[in-house]
Amino acid sequence: MTRRTYQSVTVGEVIGPVNYPVTRAMLVSYANASGDQNPIHQDEEFAKSVGLPGLIAHGMFTMATAARALTDFAGDPGAIVEYGTRFTKPVIVPDNVEVALEVSGLVAEKLPDRQVRIDLQVTCAGVKVLGLTRAIVALA
Amino acid sequence: MLSPDFVGREYPGVGTHEIHQSSIVAFARAINDENPAYYDLISAQELGYPNLVAPPTYLITIALGESERALSDPALGLDWSRVVHGDQRFTHHRPVFAGDILSCHTTIEAIKSVAGNDFLTTRSDFVDLAGVHVASTWSILVVRGAS
Q1: CA of A128, closest CA in chain B: separation in Å?
Q2: Number of domains present in the structure of chain B
Q3: Could you give the CA distance from residue A124 to residue A103 in angstroms, rounded to a whole number?
Q4: What is the pLDDT of residues B121-139, one digit of tens each?
Q5: pTM for this structure?
Q6: A87 vs B84: CB contact, 8 Å cut-off?
């Protein structure tokens, strides 16, 4: 792994897009690893019974997946100083179908202390699923 | 409607949380991230870290349980069946590593009502054994109004 240097980055640099798969099996793993066992992420009937369009991914699964674009860019998973998002639309995950999260980023600003602001766009099947997704990343 | 009396209430965490290598590995696997610094001590040390690094959103695994406990007081009036996750934000003063022993202190920062929905903001502050503030995470839960 090579750390990205602050000097090598220019404002306007584009990251990705990168596609990350999402399956129901992944959501079961995420539920077990994170402790979030809300049945809307594992039980389609239950999800529909509370008014959702289908079984949906954990918002935090989507947020964690999108962060891979940041840590891969920085070459350092400890480089993410700030990271925030809104959850704008659910990621619907049908049975036996792999859906993809498409993540792209833009270096929006160079900040003091070798930090940069990166704005992410995250869509699933063309629908924007995260909003105002921003990170401050410390580079080498 | 959530009780606005709860704004500003603080909930010291229950005990401390030791970050185990196995927990970081399980979380990294669950997000399908093969970054070697999550699995391999040598790779983490090459980046200058003392142990495996936790992924950027890893602390949600602790914040979730602690904030659920904090929000469980029936007087708050939170109906979990109407909750959707609105917003999440993390600030790291340093990365989290395997071997860290962290406390998690939860604060209810804000309760607002907009267009029939309630917005509940909680902050979870993580402090290490040396008393150093390692990270904070903010969560906004949206409680959909009764339709």
Answers
A1: 14
A2: 1
A3: 9
A4: 999 999 999 999 999 999 9
A5: 0.97
A6: yes
Q: Which amino acid is at A46?
A: F
CB-CB under 8 Å, B49 with A1: no
**How far, in Å, CA of A56 to CA of B85, rounded?**
12
Our CA angle for A58, B108, B59, nearest 5°, is 40
Domain for residue B31, yes or no? Answer: no
CA distance B76 to B72: 8
* β-pairing verdict for A130-138 and A127-128: unpaired
- Record the tokens describing residue A41, joined without a space: 């992420």
**Contact flag A78-B60 (C-beta cutoff 8 Å):** no
Contacts of A30 in chain B (CB under 8 A): 30-31
Q: A113 touching B, CB under 8 A?
A: no
Residue A26: how many other CB atoms lie within 10 Å:
21
Token pair 């992410």: residue: A120
Beta-carbon contacts of B18 under 8 Å, excluding residues fewer than 6 positions away, are B99, B100, B101
Nearest chain B Cα to A86, which residue?
B87
**Can you list the positions of beta strands (E) in chain B?**
10-11, 17-18, 83-92, 101-114, 117-128, 133-143
ipTM topping 0.90: yes
If you average pLDDT over residues A110-129, what whole number do you get? 98
**Domain architecture of chain A: domains with CATH:** 14-22+58-138 (3.10.129.10)
Structural domain of B82: 4-20+57-143
* H helix or E strand, kind and range, residue A101: strand A99-111
Q: Would you place residue B36 in the very low, low, confident or very high pLDDT band (cuts 50, 70, 90)? A: very high
Residue B9 belongs to a domain with what CATH number? 3.10.129.10
Angle at B31 between CA A93 and CA B41, to 5 degrees: 170
Q: Please give the angle made by the CA atoms of B61, B65 and B70, to the nearest 5 degrees.
A: 140
